[in-house]
Amino acid sequence: MTGFRHVVLFTWVEGTTTAQVDEVAAKLRELPAVIPEIRGYSLGSDAGVNPGTADFAIVADFADRDAYLVYRDNPTHRAVVDSMKPLIASRAAVQYEL
Amino acid sequence: MTGFRHVVLFTWVEGTTTAQVDEVAAKLRELPAVIPEIRGYSLGSDAGVNPGTADFAIVADFADRDAYLVYRDNPTHRAVVDSMKPLIASRAAVQYEL
After folding, report:
1. Could you tell me the domains of chain A?
2. Which residues are in the Stress-response A/B barrel domain (chains A, B) (predicted)?
3. Do B44 and A69 lie within an 8 Å CB cutoff?
4. CA–CA separation, B59 vs B31, rounded Å?
5. Has residue B75 got a pLDDT over 80?
6. pLDDT band for position B1 (50/70/90)?
7. Tens digits of per-residue pLDDT, B31-73?
8. In chain A, which residue's Cα lies nearest the Cα of B93?
9. A95 near B CB under 8 A
10. Shortest CB distance from B42 goes to which of A5, A50, A68?
11. CA torsion angle for A64, A21, A49, A13 (degrees, to 10)?
């Protein structure tokens, strides 16, 4: 398969509640219906298997870099990102060609 | 789809060469042939679209948590991890249920 993948990992600030994370996840899960450039969208909270992990992952697949940029800059997506910002302690991301 | 996903992002130490990263990538790409529990395996270097990203991503899919643990603890995988360690400046990982 060819394509372009966006991967992002977050750690949440101390005191972030499960309800807050669930709300973020619900907002994120609405994005594929709003942004047709999203080909695949997967997210989840860390399963607690290993020590020292981050807290939350998003893996989003696109046909190509341009389709990813549409997602990145989409206003609905930006609004979700803005709503997440108070919860984010750290963020690591990579975009790569599939 | 159900399953279990392992996501890991790396930044490399300063001075890491493209040849070194290519060698790591080649070793990683051999793992699905060695570890049948790997259902999907994708990796790549950051495409340079955004500032502040990490350098390299691996996304590995498994049927379930136990299959992931087989991968995590497989000796061939551990040998690749050991060979990568001198290059790793930072690492962030999440495992989550698909």
Report:
1. 4-97 (3.30.70.100)
2. 4-96
3. no
4. 13
5. yes
6. low
7. 999 999 999 999 999 999 999 999 999 999 999 999 999 999 9
8. A53
9. yes
10. A5
11. 100
Are A95 and B45 in contact (CB < 8 Å)?
A: no
Chain B residues close to A90, C-beta within 8 Å: 92
- β-pair partners for A40: A61
Instruction: Quote the tokens at residue B70.
Output: 């087989």
Task: Say yes or no for a CB contact (<8 Å) between A7 and B4.
Answer: no
pLDDT-based confidence at B97, cuts 50/70/90?
very high
Q: What is the pLDDT of residue B37?
A: 98
Distance, in Å, from the CA atom of A90 to the CA atom of A82, rounded to the nearest integer, reads 14
A59–B59 C-beta distance less than 8 A: yes
pLDDT at A1 over 70: no
Contacts of B4 (CB under 8 A, 6+ apart): A47, B61, B62, B63, B64, B65, B67, B68, B95, B96, B97, B98
As to burial, measured by CB atoms within 10 angstroms (0-12 exposed, 13-18 middle, 19+ buried), residue B15 is exposed
3 state SS for chain B:
CCCEEEEEEEEECCCCCHHHHHHHHHHHHCHHHHCCCCCEEEEEECCCCCCCCCCEEEEEEECCHHHHHHHHHCHHHHHHHHHHHHHEEEEEEEEEEC
